[in-house]
Amino acid sequence: MDPYSGQMSVLIIDDDEAICKALGNYFEDLGFIAYQADAGLEGLDVLLECRPDAVLVDLAMPGMGGLEFLARAREIAPETPMIVVSGTGHLEDAVEASRLGAVDYITKPILDMAVVENSVKRALEHSRLKRENRDYSERLEDLVLIRTEALRQRTQALEEANAHLTEEMAHRKKTEEALRASEARFRELADLLPQTVFEIDRPGKLVFMNKHGLRTLGYAREDIDRDVQAILMVSPEDRKRIGEIFSRLLEGEVISPNEYTALRKDGSQFPAMMYSSPVLYQGEIVGSRGVLFNLTDLKRTEKALRDSQARLSAIIEVFEGFIYTCTQDYRITFTNKKLQQYLGKNCVGDLCYQAIYGQDSPCERCAMDQAANGETVRQEFLGPLDGRWYYSVDTPVREAGDGASCKQSIVIDITDRKTAEEALRQSEAQLREENIRLRSSIKRSGRFGSIIGKSEAMEQVYETILKAAVSTASVIIYGESGTGKELAARTIHEMSRRAQGPFVPVHCGAIPPNLIESEFFGYKKGAFTGADQDKPGFLASADKGTLFLDEVGEIPPAMQVKLLRAIAGDGYTPLGGREALYPDIRFVAATNRDLFDLMEQGALREDFFYRIHILPIHLPPLRQRREDIPLLVRHFMEKYAGDQPVPAMPPDFLKNLQKAYWRGNVRELESAVHRFMTLRDTAPQSLEDSSAGAGAPKGARPASPVRLPKLLGKEEPTLKEVAAAAEREYIIQLLERYKWNRSRAAEILGVDRRTLFRKIKEYGL
């Protein structure tokens, strides 16, 4: 390349002037500078002087041939590409030329100058790449040398720093060992403290908590190793405030104490007081350390004290009696509001016997001397001014300051109690007389109100009924079907103070579940589709009287919850209503089922059970009071005889009845007597049917076919009358067979429960 023009140059050496000139013109047309020489020696001179970028040389020339030129030129310009252009075309020449550095070999004649052009351009490109590669290698070597020196210097510096660091680490290791020993001693001491001791690092992670703290907050050592954030032990309401305090601690500010609500791992909370301070390490704040006090007991004590003071103040303010204190010389030092209202003034400083009792001298009953000796005196007295009865409690107290003794008196008006006690004594006398009269009536007639029987088992029932009648507590009557549970409930009602009120019996098992709430609570007009007018429920109907819940175990649990509030006196709200109603009701329940089994099955709520199970009455089955059967038979025969004379009993009538098992109890006995009174001519067979299960275990009674007897007074009854008699007989058999389980009987009959209840009522079963 010409250094002044920047053009590429080529040297053409050939003894053939025509070829030399042709090649020169061609490359000049391409923009090259073309140098020409007709011999090898001349070509060396041009090579030294012009330094062409490429050389085209012929092999066969006079004087210095091409191969010799290549050998000399490699010494002069080893990087200049040499291209051989020869007409000899021998392979040996081409190999030798290549060995001497020729990059290409072109044979003559040259038919296409483009071949020479491409060869020169490839040679120039190859030369350029070699040159650039050499320059890059030189620069890379220089850079490696520079970097190597820098690395050596850095290595030396690192070695020096490493030596210093090793020395510093040894010192720090000793310091850390001393620090760990100090931390171990601190944690050992902390574990002995009865308060919570903790340590938190700068990011807020809990790094230590003593044993007491772990127990208090419900954590384990393993939890502390799992990156527990200390802020999680603070209630959500206090986290922002405590977080700000922690931030200020990290800035070096000491803020103690801090009261907040702590949060245990299980979610429970307790009031706490925290004392904390920053933790320094090598002059930097790395966290905080503190002590936590559980304020639960303190808060409870403070609250108890406040509550006690509030209760005492409230009691004194609303206490219906009189409270006053006076000194040993009878001067009043305090009176409550009630006494001030009674006297019409505040009599502090006055003499107690003058201001309160209107006397000129201390009262004869005054307990001042006993109070001075530390005694408490309780007594009743008649007020000298108003003639009312009072009960007083006189106790010694110490006045604050000088500690002088004085007397505190609490005086309560007991006139109403005295009147009630007198009325109760009279009532008890009347009850004793009524009890004597009833016992005499039982012995004489075998009756207790409407209940028939004078057996020992029934006398125990009568005793319990008498106690239940004078009480206001809920009653539960246990007994098999047919033992007279409703009759016992009605007797309790008639012998109680509610006798003038309504007695409302409810057969809980007969009410469809979707109607039970509206039946009990009633509803308002528009409460649901079809509610075109207000309807009172059972609770409203039983107001001022008694509500009898027969088969109480059939009430669904959801209804038990709602009914429980009414039984507890919290009232109820009719469907569609807004105002609660509070009826005055005595609840009497009855069941033939084991309520404890129902509770275990989840069919009866425990709170509902204990609300109704206060006064239990157990009615014995008829088979346990067989001595009452003659009285019952006589009673039922008189009942069904009406205005007609009571017929004579057939032979062995009572004997057969007393042998029967009576699964249906008194109801079954009544049915048998009714059947005897109605079907007198077939009475022995009917009674045998009734007693077929005598002595048999439960569920063992065989079914008997339906009989179609003649109806009383009719030799030829109508088909309707025969069908009715057969239907009644079949219903009786099913009810007795399944222990009066109405649901099961209705299922077998293929009718709903309401239809069965209507049939039972229609046939008087």
Structure description:
47% of the residues lie in helices and 17% in strands. By secondary structure, the protein is an alpha/beta fold. Strands 2-1-3-4-5 form a five-stranded parallel β-sheet, sandwiched between helices. The chain has a five-stranded antiparallel β-sheet with strand order 7-6-10-9-8. Strands 12-11-15-14-13 form a five-stranded antiparallel β-sheet. A hairpin with a 2-residue loop joins strand 9 (269-281) and strand 10 (284-294). Helix 14 packs across helix 15 (485-495), helix 21 crosses helix 23 (665-678) and helix 26 (742-749) packs across helix 27 (753-762). The longest helix is centred in the N-terminal third of the chain and has 80 residues, at 113-192. It is elongated, with a radius of gyration of 61 Å. Mean pLDDT is 81; it is low at 681-713.
Could you list some keywords that capture this structure?
5-stranded antiparallel beta sheet; 765 residues; alpha/beta; single chain; 5-stranded parallel beta sheet; elongated
What is the fold's blueprint, element by element?
Layout: E1 9-13, H1 17-29, E2 33-37, H2 40-50, E3 54-57, H3 66-76, E4 82-86, H4 91-99, E5 102-107, H5 113-192, E6 196-201, E7 206-209, H6 211-217, H7 221-224, H8 239-250, E8 258-263, E9 269-281, E10 284-294, H9 296-318, E11 322-327, E12 332-335, H10 337-343, H11 352-355, H12 368-372, E13 377-382, E14 389-398, E15 405-413, H13 415-445, E16 447-448, E17 451-452, H14 456-470, E18 475-478, H15 485-495, E19 503-507, H16 516-521, H17 538-541, E20 545-550, H18 557-567, E21 585-591, H19 595-601, H20 606-612, E22 615-618, H21 629-641, H22 653-659, H23 665-678, H24 683-690, H25 719-737, H26 742-749, H27 753-762
Parallel strand pairs: 1-2, 1-3, 3-4, 4-5, 18-21, 18-22, 19-20, 20-21
Antiparallel strand pairs: 6-7, 6-10, 8-9, 9-10, 11-12, 11-15, 13-14, 14-15, 16-17
Helix pairs in contact: 2-3, 14-15, 18-20, 21-23, 23-24, 26-27
